[in-house]
């Protein structure tokens, strides 16, 4: 339920006389009102602002590249032969190197972004188990989305070298900032509190850092701490190589005693808390608590000695701060703070001048500590500690073996993989996304079913939209449709031309024995009458072998050597032309007699670039700067243009020619597509079509659509006139190298590095469905087949969720005298309740034109309404409180004073949740009309409440950007979901209770696991404040709505997720054909 | 009117560097309630109170109630809780303000009104009468309160940028030049004859061209700075600008 926007204009005159003196904007022609700032058109002001800023930024980016930010300066070994290209990355310069390996400043080519790339020292991961563990942990760490944790982008291996990439953080490390001097306490304490909160965030997600130290904490441009290397540093440093590594020697000072002892191989969060203590110590005093002359000496000090009191080293450290610091540095893990958050809270208490909770050591404890410094006692105590640790290790070991722990780990990894899959999908890296989704099949016996809405949604989103997949055994170089539209030919590096029936997808035959060399331009095309198929295959530089087959029998009709491209048919189909050294040669295609007469007019043809879809025109480049168009009917050159851009000179630079040859297109390595008018030679347009190189390019037969395929695995379709993207074809699992339209323009064929040819409809469905005119979704009807949504401030309507057609609408103000202020709809959409500004509640069924029931619930405006799922009760909120009414008798059942919206009934009908004062949630028992609990924790206003389907949990969300999960019986908080940047106006449980959806004014919808409360994924940018999220009762659909700006309201978005049974059935029928 | 002390410090900053802005100061202050954070939030509220006033009026509250309510809302915002909530969040000031006002209307206003019949203390001096005059003069029909808020927000922001730009020019004696050249801020089709403007102001055509370039460049800078004041990180400036464009396209 939600408040309705105000329905009518307020009483007073809203247009002033100033409105009569309007002028128009000279730029866009909009009429300018009295509110135009300084008499200028606001729209044009912002638009110009954007273009001015874009121009300025372009200049700045240009200069920024020259000054590569480095953390420890350029490497002294920079002159050593360094690989400049590393998979998808260009290595620009070394940032640092340490025990773990080398960190590079790199550019990710496909995504055009700067990253820090960390290569794991060779030998760092010796065994397969370690490699596996590294990848698993890195993937888990990649899920940490926190403002104070450096995000990991990618984890991988290139030519046997393991690496991961992360965000490039400018600014130095905390070690450099400390520089051996104490930091002012007022700067140090908030800094460490932030670090501790970030560490806690990771701990909550099951990830330990294990190597916290000042060099692993970077400071960004605003001086904000950024933690790197979560869970990774220690993994990549094999325990056996520890002793020799200088880098590790440094980190011995920050190591927890149990870690230094090397006994407790399974570390806990307490080890990280210890390390936080050492960092705090160093921030306050300028030096680490223990620093021996050698590595072993440092380890010994860590294990045996008590730290010097920081108060002795710096006068600025007071008693409380000292206590906090020493509590972290306790030798026994159980004596330290129970969590990094507890440390952060104590630091924040100290900042606020409150009493800290860290209990100062008692006199007895100090005596024990003193005694420990005595060697004789130390031996005894050492034994004692050894026994304790050994005992603890066994307990930990036993505990880790329990099934519960295995389950927790599996859930955690699942959440990490879902997160990564969504990220890969956003970057069009479909291959990776599919791989991650496919990791989770049907659970084995005894295993928990982890797959919820998020997995089913990702399965659908990564499924690809192709109609057919046809398999090669090598990369696919070229695809071509026969002019009669019946046959598709594809040429692969498997030395094979494969022929397919376009309608059935059946393989017709394979033409084998053609050696296709890598990195040369091949050509494959049919004669205009579909009688012949020609392949031009480079054999030696620009010299090609020509293969000609008769399509009736697929017999090889002829083979010629020593020709050059272009090779083409004249439009009458009787003549085949090929360039040869010093001229051109033609053949009569019935007799295969050479005919030199025609050839002369083509003697000056340049390098072949493209042919028009109808085969009547050719595009060639006589040199690097010029492009020519040849009319094959008149045998003459017809127009052309100049290209100045050096990026078009390389190989695999695709060109395409529109059917009438008036427009030519080219794509380049930067993902840009250019259009030229071949008549005037002018460039018409340029835009960025892909974030990475464009390899395939084709015009539709009507010339209206341009298809582009590229490195990023996607094919985009563009309206040639407006350059608007009209569709995206996802399904290739690697680079797309070639695209072609069928002669009727209805299909697209594509091929590439995933060794498949795919056939698509050229009119793909839009990626994300939206309902035109709908604003806030409020209920699913007819088991999810229909959706009811608020349309205008006084109108609701119902849409078909499959066809997106509006079915019917209802004006809520019919028969109502007062302004509507709130609305509630029953779960099945059949009953509607509206509240008015005069305290009235009006009830109607969805078929009633006017309300059938009305009663006065409050003396003043109704500010919130909710109906119980069993339709027996209605809660109405007014300024004084919430009243609960019986819907059958219209009697008031309860009056909850101090309660306010949002409101939520538990599905079992026993409880009502409301807001209380001071941002609390109030839980009310409906049978006794008593307050059950007051749930405190939110720091700012409540925005939404929802019970889980089993009524056992309650979720509340707030402007403070968090959602809290509570036990509905005791009011105990189970989890605080942090991740949204702004308030969360809406939350919804999936019908199976496994997944929670949250919608925020930060324009995102997030999904959370209700098993372990981890964030699962963020749905593709909503582009608007999200005010409502709703699952369909069958769990197959999620909708979200907001109030979108822009003239066309289309803000209700629909995400589909087929059921597991449907997915299983679908997977059985989808195998590539060959 | 808001004060402009910060503009010099801003102007001195290198382009492309995200200067410490009001909203980021507030966000980074967390629960510590530093005087700087208080100053920053006061600045923001003084600049952007009108869009909120228009929102309240469009909700159906009368001028008197709306004035009282806006005052009370800001008073509470500046007094309390607010800082606790802003900690570690990384959102936009615009969204925060609107969500908080909606919450205030729903939960606290009625109670507050009952308590303070005698009139309360106002922490933020707002020219409420001018606000009401403006509200009645501007078109408000056929828009929801939310949309009205967004549009007023965008216009207020642009006004502030243009005010600062004009002051920049005036401080170097170029107020007349600003008035003559401001149409070029909305694009190149303004049909402004540079030679004519030059003749009127005693400048060569070339000098006018240079002045136009500088004016546009400075406008871009100030626009970015003003938006930066209301968002949490530099990455959000462009996004917010595109959002404002969408708001103004309606």
Given the helix and strand composition of chain B, which structural class is it? mainly alpha
Oligomeric category: heterodimer
Distance between the termini of chain B: 28 Å
**Biggest sheet features of chain B:** none
Residue windows where pLDDT falls under 50 for at least 5 positions of chain B: 1-19
Helix count from the secondary structure assignment of chain B: 13
* Biggest interface: A-B, 81 and 81 residues
Instruction: State the strand order across the main sheet of chain A.
Output: 3-4-5-6-8-7
What profile does the largest beta sheet of chain A have?
6 strands, antiparallel
Instruction: Give the integer mean of the pLDDT values of chain A.
Output: 80
Low-confidence stretches of chain A: 1-21, 61-83, 235-250, 1045-1050
Q: What is the β-strand count of chain A?
A: 64
Shape of chain A: globular
Total of helices of chain A: 19
Describe the structure.
- The complex is a heterodimer of chains A (1074) and B (250).
- By secondary structure, chain A is an alpha+beta fold.
- Chain A is built from 19 helices and 64 strands.
- In chain A, the strands form 16 sheets. A 6-stranded antiparallel beta sheet of chain A has the order 3-4-5-6-8-7, with helices on one face.
- The longest helix of chain A has 27 residues, at 375-401.
- Chain A is globular.
- The relative contact order of chain A is 0.06.
- Mean pLDDT of chain A is 80; it is low at 1-21, 61-83, 235-250 and 1045-1050.
- With 250 residues, chain B is an all-alpha fold.
- Chain B has one domain.
- Helix content of chain B is 69%, strand content 0%.
- Chain B is built from 13 helices and no strands.
- Chain B has helices spanning 6-12, 22-29, 35-58, 63-79, 82-86, 93-107, 109-115, 128-137, 145-171, 175-181, 194-201, 205-228, 235-248.
- Chain B is elongated.
- The model of chain B is unreliable at 1-19 (pLDDT under 50).
- The chains are: A alpha+beta (1074), B mainly alpha (250).
- Chains A and B meet through helix 1 and helix 4 of A and helix 5, helix 6, helix 9, helix 12 and helix 13 of B.
């Amino acid at each position: 339920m939600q408040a309705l926007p105000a329905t009518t204009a307020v009483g007073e005159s809203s247009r002033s006389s100033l409105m009569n003196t309007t002028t128009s904007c000279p730029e866009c022609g909009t009429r300018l009102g009295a509110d135009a700032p300084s008499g200028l058109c606001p729209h044009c002001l912002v638009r110009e602002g954007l273009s001015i800023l874009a121009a300025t930024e372009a200049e700045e980016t240009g200069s920024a590249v020259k000054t590569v930010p480095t953390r420890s300066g350029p490497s002294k070994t920079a002159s050593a032969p360094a690989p400049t290209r590393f998979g998808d990355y260009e290595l620009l310069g070394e940032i640092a190197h340490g025990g773990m390996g080398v960190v590079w400043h790199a550019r990710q080519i496909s995504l055009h972004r700067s990253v820090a790339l960390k290569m794991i020292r060779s030998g760092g991961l010796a065994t397969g188990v370690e490699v596996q563990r590294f990848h698993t942990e890195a993937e888990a760490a990649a899920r940490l989305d926190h403002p104070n944790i450096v995000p990991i982008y990618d984890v991988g291996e290139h030519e046997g070298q393991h690496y991961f990439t992360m965000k490039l953080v400018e600014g130095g490390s905390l070690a450099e900032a400390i520089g051996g001097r104490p930091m002012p306490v007022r700067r140090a304490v908030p800094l460490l509190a932030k670090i501790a909160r970030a560490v806690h965030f990771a701990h909550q997600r099951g990830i330990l850092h294990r190597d916290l130290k000042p060099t692993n904490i970077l400071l960004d441009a605003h001086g904000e701490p950024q933690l790197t290397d979560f869970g990774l540093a220690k993994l990549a440093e094999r325990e056996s190589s520890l002793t020799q590594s200088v880098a590790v020697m440094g980190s011995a000072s920050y190591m927890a005693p149990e870690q230094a002892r090397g006994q407790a191989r399974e570390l806990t969060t307490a080890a990280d808390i210890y390390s936080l203590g050492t960092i705090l110590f160093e921030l306050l005093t300028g030096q680490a608590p223990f620093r021996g002359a050698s590595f072993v000496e440092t380890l010994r000090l860590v294990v045996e000695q008590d730290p010097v009191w920081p108060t002795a080293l710096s006068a600025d450290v007071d008693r409380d701060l000292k206590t906090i610091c020493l509590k972290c540095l306790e030798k026994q893990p159980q004596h330290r703070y129970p969590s990094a958050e507890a440390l952060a809270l104590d630091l924040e208490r100290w900042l606020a001048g409150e009493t800290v909770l860290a209990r100062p050591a008692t006199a007895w404890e100090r005596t024990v500590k003193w005694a420990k410094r005595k060697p004789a006692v130390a031996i005894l105590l050492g034994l004692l500690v050894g026994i304790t640790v050994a005992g603890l290790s066994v307990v930990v070991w036993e505990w880790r073996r329990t099934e519960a722990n295995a389950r927790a780990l599996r859930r955690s990894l699942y959440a990490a993989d879902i997160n990564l899959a969504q990220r890969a999908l956003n970057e069009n890296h479909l291959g990776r996304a599919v791989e991650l989704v496919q990791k989770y099949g049907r659970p084995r016996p005894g295993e928990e079913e982890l797959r919820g809405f998020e997995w089913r949604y990702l399965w659908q989103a990564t499924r690809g939209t192709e109609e057919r997949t046809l398999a090669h055994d090598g990369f696919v170089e070229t695809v071509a449709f026969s002019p009669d539209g019946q046959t598709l030919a594809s040429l692969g590096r498997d030395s094979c031309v494969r022929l397919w029936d376009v309608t059935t997808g059946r393989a017709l035959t394979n033409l084998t024995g053609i050696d296709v060399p890598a990195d040369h331009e091949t050509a494959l095309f049919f004669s205009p009458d579909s009688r012949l198929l020609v392949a031009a295959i480079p054999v030696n530089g620009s010299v090609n072998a020509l293969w000609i087959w008769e399509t009736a029998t697929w017999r090889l009709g002829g083979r010629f050597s020593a020709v050059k491209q272009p090779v083409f048919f004249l439009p009458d189909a009787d003549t085949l032309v090929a360039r040869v050294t010093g001229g051109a040669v033609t053949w009569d295609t019935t007799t295969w007699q050479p005919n030199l007469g025609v050839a002369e007019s083509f003697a000056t043809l340049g390098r072949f670039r493209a042919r028009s879809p109808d085969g009547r025109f050719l595009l060639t480049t006589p040199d690097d700067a010029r492009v020519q168009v040849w009319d094959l009917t008149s045998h003459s050159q017809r127009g052309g243009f100049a290209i100045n851009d050096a990026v078009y000179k390389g190989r695999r630079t695709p060109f395409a020619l529109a059917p009438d040859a008036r427009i030519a297109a080219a794509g380049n390595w930067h993902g840009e597509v250019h259009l030229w008018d071949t008549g005037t030679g002018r460039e018409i347009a340029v835009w960025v079509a892909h974030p990475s190189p464009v390899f395939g390019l084709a015009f539709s037969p009507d010339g209206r659509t341009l298809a582009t395929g590229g490195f990023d695995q996607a094919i985009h379709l563009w309206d040639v006139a407006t350059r608007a993207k009209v569709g995206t074809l996802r399904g290739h699992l690697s680079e797309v190298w070639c695209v072609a339209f069928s002669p009727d323009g209805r299909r697209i064929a594509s091929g590439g590095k995933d060794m498949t040819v795919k056939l698509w409809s050229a009119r793909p469905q839009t990626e994300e469905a939206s309902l035109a005119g709908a604003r806030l979704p409020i209920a699913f009807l007819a088991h999810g087949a229909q959706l009811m949504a608020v349309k205008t401030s006084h109108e609701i309507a119902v849409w078909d969720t499959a066809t997106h057609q509006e079915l019917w609408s209802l004006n809520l103000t019919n028969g109502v005298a007062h302004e509507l202020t709130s609305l509630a709809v029953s779960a099945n959409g059949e009953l509607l309740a509206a509240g008015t500004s005069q305290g009235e509640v009006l009830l109607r069924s969805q078929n009633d034109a006017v309300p059938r029931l009305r009663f006065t619930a409050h003396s003043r405006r109704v500010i919130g309404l909710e109906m119980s799922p069993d339709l027996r009760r209605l809660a109405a909120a007014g300024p004084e409180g919430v009243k609960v009414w019986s819907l059958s008798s219209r009697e008031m059942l309860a009056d909850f004073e101090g309660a306010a919206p949002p409101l939520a009934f538990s599905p079992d009908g026993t409880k009502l949740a409301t807001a209380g004062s001071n941002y609390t949630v109030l839980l009310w028992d409906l049978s006794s009309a008593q307050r059950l609990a007051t749930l405190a924790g939110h720091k700012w206003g409540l925005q939404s409440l929802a019970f889980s389907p089993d009524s056992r949990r309650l979720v509340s969300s707030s402007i403070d950007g968090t959602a809290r999960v509570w036990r509905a019986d005791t009011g105990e908080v189970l989890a605080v979901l942090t991740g949204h940047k702004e308030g969360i106006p809406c939350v919804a449980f999936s019908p199976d209770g496994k997944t929670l959806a949250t919608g925020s004014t930060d324009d995102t919808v997030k999904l959370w696991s209700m098993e372990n409360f981890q964030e699962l994924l963020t749905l593709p940018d909503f582009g608007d404040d999200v005010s409502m999220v709703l699952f369909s009762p069958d769990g197959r659909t999620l909708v979200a709505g907001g109030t979108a700006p822009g003239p066309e309201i289309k803000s209700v978005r629909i995400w589909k997720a087929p059921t597991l049974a449907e997915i299983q059935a679908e997977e059985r029928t989808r195998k590539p054909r060959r | 009117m808001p004060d402009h002390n910060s503009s010099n410090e801003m102007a001195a900053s290198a382009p492309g560097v995200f200067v410490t802005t009001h909203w980021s100061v507030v966000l980074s202050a967390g629960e510590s309630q530093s005087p700087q954070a208080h100053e920053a939030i006061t600045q923001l509220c003084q600049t952007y109170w009108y869009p909120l006033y228009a929102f309240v009026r469009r909700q159906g509250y009368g001028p008197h109630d709306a004035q009282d309510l806006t005052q009370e809302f800001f008073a509470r915002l500046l007094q309390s809780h607010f800082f606790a909530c802003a900690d570690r969040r990384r959102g936009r000031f615009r969204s925060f303000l609107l969500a908080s006002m909606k919450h205030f209307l729903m939960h606290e206003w009625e109670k507050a009104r009952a308590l303070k019949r005698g009139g309360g203390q106002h922490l933020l001096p707002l020219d409420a009468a001018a606000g009401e005059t403006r509200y009645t003069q501007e078109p408000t029909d056929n828009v929801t309160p939310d949309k009205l808020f967004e549009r007023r927000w965008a216009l207020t922001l642009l006004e502030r940028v243009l005010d600062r730009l004009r002051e920049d020019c005036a401080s170097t004696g170029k107020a007349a030049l600003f008035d003559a050249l401001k149409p070029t801020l909305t694009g190149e089709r303004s049909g402004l004859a540079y030679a004519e403007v030059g003749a009127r102001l005693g400048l060569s055509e070339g000098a006018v061209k240079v002045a136009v370039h500088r004016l546009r460049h400075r406008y871009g800078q100030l626009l970015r700075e003003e938006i930066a004041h209301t968002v949490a990180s530099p990455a959000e400036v462009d996004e917010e600008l595109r959002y404002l464009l969408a708001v103004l396209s309606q």
